[in-house]
Amino acid sequence: MNNIKTKFQEVYIPFLIVSIGTILFYNIFRWTLDIKLGILPLKENLLNFWIPFALPWIPILIWLRIRIRILNIKGKRDNGYFGYQFAMAAAMAVPIIISQNYIEKSSFDLNEISSISEVGELKQEKYFRVTSFDVNQKSSLPYVTARTSGRNNDNLNFYLYLACPFDGANSIWYGVEYKKNLSNRISEQRKNSEYRTFLKKSEKEFETYNFQDVQYFERLGYSDDRDGFIEAIKERNTDLNEKEQIILVPKKDVFENRLGNSFPWIFGSFGIGALVLLAMVLIPKIDEKELKDFRQNKPLKEDDLKDVLSLLNPMGENKATAILLLLNITFFLIMVFDGLNIVSPTPKELLEIGGNRRFEVMNGEYWRLFSSMFIHGGLLHLFMNLIGLGLGSSLLENVLGSVKLIIIYIICGILASLASIYWHENTVSVGASGAIFGLYGLILAFTVFKIYPNYMRGMTWMLLGLYAGVSLLFGFLGGIDNAAHFGGLISGFVIGGILILTNKKQLQKNAS
Predict the structure, then answer these.
(1) Catalytic site residues?
(2) 170 and 39, same structural domain?
């Protein structure tokens, strides 16, 4: 009985307090700064999903991860404890995500108006029912784009945005969207065929589109869909003031049904998560030693979080590794807060923010050879490169020194960018992988010419095979810029060879 009481006091009750506090905090934060004041310059997909998905990990890592250790979880150590952390994060994230749909829709009433021009006067409103309106279908402006999605970019999504002007209303547009999903693993020929079929079918459907078949209109907020319609309008209005444009999309359901069952599911999902956590807390026994250490405020002996934070410390042992990791993370956050899609930004978006392409570089924009090294095509792209960068640079920093490692990283990245534009005529190339492959070219040279001691060379060969080999193999299957990979790998190997010829003994001494 004492064990159950201890589990409640030290693990379960703190989980409930932290969970309820996190859910309330984010909803109040979102409602106040975004919905009420409109001063949160973040896209809806970030506010509705990605921030709620990531936010719970902060209180878990700060307050709850140490408490979980008092449970004697079988299958030792980190895998079992991570499962508990993941369950806690899910129990918080799901109700937060559901609640965003509710507060976003419930915070606005339906405005009955007689003319579409009145929408411009109701700047803080979202939903409108218009008594009478006309749309100039012949003046519609199209924009087509594509995005990948799925765990490994398995899906390819085509989007056609048609911005149609309302008669008698400036800067107010009727938005019509068509989309098609297909596998991203099919051949390029099949993709092109599906693309043409999608456009023809959409254009045919639009010819008979019923603009009056609408229950009410929703004003689009800051989102990828709004960006698509704005791009359509910009095709013929290059000096457009984007903020003044109002995009209205038709809704065919009954306004009173827009919330569905989201409100009860906020509580229902949290209740399910809380019950699952209760069972998970009650099943294992208490680790008496961990409990004693916890109550005496002793730090964890094995703490992965501290290891990660130390790796990101630019004043720590691996300064160059930390600086390069932080630069890539910082540039990605800037991209996201600038409005790029966190999962799959389009080539056009990547080019605008500094991506690498032959035409722009050959016309004097040489800075793209450098800037593209710190731009990534989505969260998964960044995550994989951070792993490769962390592993590769940590094997080289003690051998080369921090300053030399950063210089070589930049040189290899620029040479990889040059290889990319030499090989590809019209491909937008981004990512740190060219520079990272430069580091693996160095590791290859140091392994082949026995700079690393014998006990390390098995590990370096395995790392080269798992990261560099597998990445190159996937590159041959499509969707990855292997020209940059080979350019970086070869340049790194050559630089490594030069260093070995000029300073082999010192390198061997550093490596040992």
Answers:
(1) 433, 485
(2) no
